[in-house]
Amino acid sequence: MRKADLVNAISQKTGVSRVDVLVTLEALFKEIKSSLESGENVYVRGFGSFVIKRRAKKVGRHIKMGKALEIPEHYIPAFKPAKSFVEQVKNNVTSLPSDEGEED
What we know:
Blueprint: H1 3-14, H2 18-37, E1 42-44, E2 48-55, E3 58-62, E4 67-71, E5 74-81, H3 83-92
Antiparallel strand pairs: 1-2, 2-5, 3-4
Helix pairs in contact: 1-2
């Protein structure tokens, strides 16, 4: 499901115009990003948590040059689903669609 599909589904289920749903969704994403950028985690009860994870400094390798590189400590955003969300998916998904159309 893409963002456009999500907007259409919410619009149809709620009766709210697609433009209003899109604006609301964009505002939600912007607030989540803003909170994470400032180091604050976002908790949505029953859905999950958007958290900041620390990645320790490590040594990596530049494959073409064969050189060791130091990768500095950094922070990345992560999503941790709520237990109820995990259980709902675990109990209701019977098979996955084909790999076609999957996006990272």
